[in-house]
């Protein structure tokens, strides 16, 4: 077990956010944080990454680990090239030039590395965001909506990258609206709705217990849709 959250809440003035969430993150596994708009996914990720402190409840880390993080959006300085962005962020993480080249290749931006970010499409900026999160050796990789803006080819590549990180022994936590994507690669799921946990645990076990073959159908049933 990497961490255990107990009755974790972060409720904003509008009474929205995350309410009484108890769950665990298991080491070396892929956890998909799923749910619709406003379900509380980013709020939960801000608590995990320490960007916000919980209003109540506890987050107990069994082993404190360095986190690599892909936020849902980064406003990269538009006058910098992809290489310059990666160099800048790599220097903060003391990552050498070999690895900088490797991450740019992994996300398919090596050939356009000298282009300024302002000339990048949304998908290219998202891949640069993914590249910066892959720098370094932090054993916990957290990705907020990593499929946003990616075409089907890059969604398939993202899947491979997440599985490669797991194969290296990393724990991966990612948020998504795409239940089919979550289902394809996640070992564990945490499904949120209106700030509360709808389902959590081992994905295969949950589907078997509920006698459902797809997460989407189970989600629709739980919401009475
Ligand atoms: N800083 C804030 N101030 C007030 N309300 C907030 C704040 N951050 C989030 N919320 C509210 O908390 C709820 C959960 O938001 P959150 O961004 O965590 O959801 P999400 O599941 O990531 O949604 P989406 O898929 O749309 O990105 C929403 O109703 C949102 O309006």
UniProtKB/TrEMBL annotation:
SMART domains: AAA. PROSITE patterns: ABC_TRANSPORTER_1, ABC_TRANSPORTER_2. Keywords: ATP-binding, Nucleotide-binding, Transport. It comes from the Bacteria. InterPro entries: AAA+_ATPase, ABC_transporter-like_ATP-bd, ABC_transporter-like_CS, ABC_Transporter_VariousFunc, P-loop_NTPase. Gene3D superfamilies: P-loop containing nucleotide triphosphate hydrolases. Residues 3-219 form the ABC transporter domain. SUPFAM superfamilies: P-loop containing nucleoside triphosphate hydrolases (SSF52540). Pfam families: ABC_tran. One of its GO terms (molecular function) is ATP binding. PANTHER family: ABC TRANSPORTER ATP-BINDING PROTEIN ALBC-RELATED. This is ABC-2 type transport system ATP-binding protein.
